[in-house]
């Protein structure tokens, strides 16, 4: 089957959201791209920009397919392959998926808690003709940028509020990162809680971790080796910075966020 036929077939199945079939088609397509010296842009050869645009589109489809199949390593590889194409001005302007994919990559970094790489990626955006001052105005890129700021500020409530309203997202792939982002935030909160409090009622801990069921809270208790007895969670810390028992849920959240900000200042 020719490259043109394979590409047509890939597009048809992608539009049907038949991602498994698409994933199988990508391997023979990439082999043919290699044979035609199209998989990696060659600045020294006179390759038709239209051919490179086709390659870029295929790689973008591959990235979206990988996300929808939860193959995040594959997704990362496609982003790496796409970056040289996005650095070519003539191709950069032809992509209608660039900002979406770059924002999804930023969300992926946030789910891993890799804030250092997050900032490195932002700095590299200038290579893709993306003005840093305009990023917060972009419908795609503004989302991970706001999330990162709220996480750094310890304003986890805002992140959770946006994640709970799925219709706020400009594309369905953003929803795929909801569990990973919430889990990353909960781990962040948990690490702070066990340093701030000596004990908390399990209902208050459930609120702090944005969980719906007590059974979910108990999973975190087991994960962190906390003690649970008579509806109280004990963190076994030597120093107590706030009162042991606080019934006002808003005060608990406020104290936790103050601590997060203090930690950021120390770091």
CATH architecture name of the largest domain: Alpha Horseshoe
> Total number of β-strand segments?
3
The main sheet comes to: 3 strands, antiparallel
Shape: elongated
The CATH topology of the largest domain: Serine Threonine Protein Phosphatase 5, Tetratricopeptide repeat
Classified by CATH, the class of the largest domain is Mainly Alpha
Order of helices and strands: HHHHHHHHHHHEHHEEH
The rounded distance between the terminal residues' Cα atoms is 57 Å
What is the topology, as strand order, of the major beta sheet?
A: 1-3-2
Q: Unreliable runs, pLDDT <50, ≥5 residues? A: 238-248, 259-267
Strand content: under 5%
Number of domains: 3
Q: Which structural class do the helices and strands define?
A: mainly alpha
Mean pLDDT over the full residue set:
85
What integer value in Å does the Rg equal?
23 Å
Binned, the helix content reads: 55-70%
Subunit arrangement of the protein: single chain
Helical segment count:
14
Structural notes for this entry:
- With 267 residues, this protein is mainly alpha-helical.
- It folds into 3 domains: 1-96, Serine Threonine Protein Phosphatase 5, Tetratricopeptide repeat; 97-176, no CATH class; 184-267, Serine Threonine Protein Phosphatase 5, Tetratricopeptide repeat (Alpha Horseshoe).
- The protein has 14 helices and 3 strands.
- It has helices spanning 3-15, 19-35, 49-68, 72-86, 89-92, 98-111, 115-124, 142-153, 156-164, 173-176, 178-196, 202-208, 214-224, 249-266, and strands at 199-201, 227-229, 232-234.
- Strands 1-3-2 form a 3-stranded antiparallel beta sheet.
- α6 (98-111) packs parallel to α8 (142-153).
- Residues 238-248 and 259-267 have low confidence and may be disordered.
- Keywords: Proteasome.
- It comes from Pichia kluyveri.
- Residues 98-238 form the CSN8/PSMD8/EIF3K domain.
- This is Proteasome regulatory particle lid subunit.
């Amino acid at each position: 089957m020719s490259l043109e036929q394979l590409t047509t077939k890939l597009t048809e199945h992608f539009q049907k959201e038949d991602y498994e079939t698409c994933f199988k088609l990508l391997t023979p397509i990439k082999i043919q791209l290699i044979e035609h010296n199209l998989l990696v842009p060659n600045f020294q050869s006179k390759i038709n920009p239209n051919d490179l645009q086709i390659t870029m589109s295929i790689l973008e489809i591959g990235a979206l397919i990988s996300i929808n199949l939860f193959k995040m390593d594959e997704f990362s590889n496609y982003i790496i392959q796409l970056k040289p194409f996005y650095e070519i001005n003539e191709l950069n302007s032809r992509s209608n998926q660039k900002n979406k994919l770059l924002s999804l990559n930023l969300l992926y970094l946030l789910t891993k808690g890799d804030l250092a790489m997050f900032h490195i990626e932002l700095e590299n955006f200038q290579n893709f003709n993306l003005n840093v001052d305009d990023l917060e105005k972009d419908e795609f890129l503004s989302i991970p940028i706001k999330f990162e700021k709220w996480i750094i500020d310890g304003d986890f409530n805002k992140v959770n509020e946006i994640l709970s309203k799925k219709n706020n997202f400009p594309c369905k792939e953003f929803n795929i990162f909801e569990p990973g982002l919430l889990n990353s935030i909960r781990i962040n909160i948990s690490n702070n809680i066990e340093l701030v409090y000596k004990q908390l009622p399990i209902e208050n801990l459930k609120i702090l971790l944005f969980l719906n069921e007590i059974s979910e809270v108990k999973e975190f208790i087991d994960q962190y080796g906390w003690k649970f007895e008579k509806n109280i969670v004990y963190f076994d810390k030597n120093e107590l910075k706030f009162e042991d028992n606080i019934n006002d849920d808003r005060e608990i959240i406020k104290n936790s966020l103050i601590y997060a900000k203090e930690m950021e200042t120390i770091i």
